[in-house]
Amino acid sequence: MKLRTLQARVVLAAALSILITVVAIGVGVEVLVGRHLHNALDHTLRDRAAEIARLSVSAPALLTTAGTLDSPLGGRALSVEVLDRQSRIVARSLALGSLLLPESALVRNAIRDGHGGYGDATLGGDRLRVYVAPLADLHGPAAGGAVIVASSTSELEETLNRLRYILGISAVVAALVAAIAAAILLRRALRPLAQLSSAAAEIERSGDATRRLPAPETKDEVGTLAATLNDMLGSLERAQERERRFVADASHELRTPLTALRGNVAFVSRHGAAAGDDVVADLQADTERMAELIESLLALSREDAAGTPNDVVRLDLLARQQGEADESLTIHALAPVAVRGDLEALERALVNLLENARHHGPAGGAITVTVEQTNGIARLSVSDDGAGPASSDASAVFQRFWRGNQGRPGSGLGLAIVRTTAERHGGTVSVDGSRFTVELPALRELTESEGRTDASDREKGLP
Predict the structure, then answer these.
(1) In terms of residue numbers, what domain contains 399?
(2) What does the CA dihedral 120, 124, 125, 131 come to, rounded to 10 degrees?
(3) Considering 290, 320, 348, which residue would you say is the last residue of a domain?
(4) Residue 349 burial (10 A CB sphere; 0-12, 13-18, 19+)
């Protein structure tokens, strides 16, 4: 079954990681402790064998004395058998009773070659650790024989089993403690997230973007998330406010020509219209104004909804085309300048700038279009001989439906469309006096390539 909550997954991960870590440490401890205990047992067996070997040399008669071989060494009871060179038993521990320590190749090697060694054996269902050592061939009944020293490993195995049990219990307890600690910490850490989620759900239900999420007391990742979400809500609130203002402004702008149309239509329906009447001209003017306003609103709506443009557009060619259509324009676009953009939108932005210059510049004044590139920035500028907007209105001229205090002609959307187009293309628009400039990221490689081609063509005498 999948764990659906983050808290359950983290708690399980913490418990498993602690469990695996403790088990791994426990295995290492068991190996080290087991090796130490086995080494200690081997040393005890060897020390006892060395003691018997010395005794067989210094006091061979003492070997056959009852109880001599039963004295424990280091608190450990050992089983001992002393054999002569024919592998016959010379002496043995009384604790063995009727049992005999098993002979093996170790005994034959000790008697024949004089080499001792360790081995494992069983006696009466009990596992033994055995050490066989050769005896010096000096004198006594055991001369040239061997001594077998054995000890049961049951105590050692019991100790290791007890250690395994303790380590297993410790691993389980550690995993439980880790799970409980992780659950407590996560509950405290996720409580602000639960509050954020509840507040976000309430905002979603009410649709009120003016509300904000509660800011956590801690300055951690959750606090950063809350601040980011609140900034997003603020942006949404501003977007909604702009939308409401836009709808209100559009309604206001449309109300004026509609009222005029309604009045003129009512006059014509009552009195009729004769050729040359001003009312017919007013009807035509109001209709044109409404058509222009609706077209501007549609263009602005398309710009707001359009995505990132991907076509290659030559701004110099765009400017030259406008110069060919209107010979009164002065075009400065000698070098090729290319951008990644939307040809139709950029052409509309240039036309809007030209219309703005024609409406607000002096009658019969010169209008100049300049296209240039500097440091990877493409600039498209339109200027006229007028003074331009006041410096205090430099930012307001790009707002929707702004026409200044004098009620200038037009819908008040032309420059707003220019700004929206520039921003969609990753650029900006600004005004300096009567010079309006759109700055966009230039396609450096294409522009340089076009520039080199033109230069080579001129060298060849081509136009």
Answers:
(1) 307-459
(2) -10
(3) 290
(4) buried
Q: What is the pLDDT of residue 126?
A: 83
Distance CA 147, CA 149 (A): 7
Tell me how crowded residue 457 is: count the other CB atoms within 10 A of its CB. 11
Low-confidence stretches of the chain (pLDDT < 50) are 1, 447, 451-463
- CA separation for the pair 132, 107 (Å, rounded): 6
Number of Cβ atoms within 10 Å of the Cβ of 350? 22
Per-residue pLDDT tens digits for 265-289: 776 766 666 655 666 667 667 677 7
Which residues, listed in sequence order, are joined to residue 89 by a DSSP beta bridge?
A: 83
- Average pLDDT of the chain, as a whole number: 79
Statement to judge: residues 338 and 441 lie in one domain: yes
Is 420 in contact with 305 (CB distance < 8 Å)?
no
- Short-list 295, 293, 303, CA closest to 342: 303
Beta bridge partners of 232: none
pLDDT in tens, 150-177: 888 888 888 899 998 998 899 899 889 9
Q: What is the DSSP string of 286-354?
A: HHHHHHHHHHHHHHHHHHHH-----EEEEHHHHHHHHHHH-TTEEEE--S--EEEE-HHHHHHHHHHHH
Q: How would you classify the pairing of strands 329-332 and 367-374?
A: parallel
3-state secondary structure of 35: helix
Is the same domain home to 16 and 157?
Answer: yes
User: SS3 for 427?
Assistant: coil
DSSP-assigned letters across all residues of 49-77: HHHHHHHHHH-GGGGGSTTGGG--BTTB-
Buried-state track 219-247, b at ≥16 Cβ within 10 A, e below 16? eeebeeebeebbeebeeeeeeeeeeeebe
